[in-house]
Amino acid sequence: MENKKLGWAIVGLGKFATEQLIPAFKDCKYSELVALVSGSPDKAKRIAAEYNLDASNIYDYQNYDSIKDNPAVDVIYIVLPNSLHAEFTVRGAQAGKHIMCEKPMATSVEDCQKMIEACRQAGKKLMIGYRAQYETYNLKCIELIREGKIGDLKLITSDHGRPLKPDQPEDKWRTNKKLAGGGSLMDIGIYSLQACRYLTGEEPVEISAMMSNTPNDPRFNEVEENITFSLRFPGGVLANCSSSYSFFEIKRFQAFGSEGNITLDPATDYNEHQLTLKTDAGTEEIKLEGNNHFAAEIDHFSECILENKTPKTPGEEGLQDVKLMMAIYEAAATGKPVKV
Prior knowledge:
- InterPro entries: Gfo/Idh/MocA-like_OxRdtase_C, Gfo/Idh/MocA-like_OxRdtase_N, Gfo/Idh/MocA_Oxidoreductases, Glc-Fru_OxRdtase_bac, NAD(P)-bd_dom_sf.
- By secondary structure, this protein is of the alpha/beta class.
- The chain has ten helices and 15 strands.
- β4 (75-78), α3 (85-94) and β5 (98-102) form a beta-alpha-beta unit.
């Protein structure tokens, strides 16, 4: 592989980008931050100065397309409200850049397909930012299940919740269905859905769901507060999942097998993970050397570009989640199971 670092541009400078993604580049081997795209020029200038970026590599949402003329930028990472992912992915691909996009990939199946097609037509790669699939503890759980450490996998439970705080800039847009596409499911329930898919290694064939909102809570005039969903997998595994915008913070999953179970709690925290394995031999807390999973996913994509390989979490992975979330919403709305 070429001994070089690819140049990355971050589109959207919210809390997640500035506190998690941008600092992660210091741990990257094949990726470096070279450009910023923001609707807040003062913030962009401040961050550019902090990270020693060339001021000429700052763009806004109007002149974003001119990034095509900047050979320093190889990859664009879209970190915008959900409904804007499709537009900025398509524009970025048409500018001749590879695209990484935050999850959820988009707010509709149609938009996901447009994103995949735009990158295909441009001859550029597309990856979705599923950081848990690059995180040490989540990968260990997959390994334990595949190696039969808990026997035959029978059931998965996964719960993700946090209180939605619209007074905070990072949450204000999440109350707006046009921007967010949905509520807790789109934001954090997707982690529960993802966990079931990568722990089983299968795709669900049937979905049931229920949804509820607290009456007169203005946060949930447009988006759902609580949603529970059950999945049936072709190999016989069942899954029960939940997401909420009013739970005390939780981000965990459990996998139950014929000879043991594993609990990862927290499972999808930015920094902290606790993994417990229970079998006839006893209870073992498994300690691992954690990794910077933001740097890991960023470098994975750079390596895929340099080696011309398909990313582990390509656009098709994001499309599948959006298809399944639409089925979850349908099942909740109709009160009937949905075959998928």
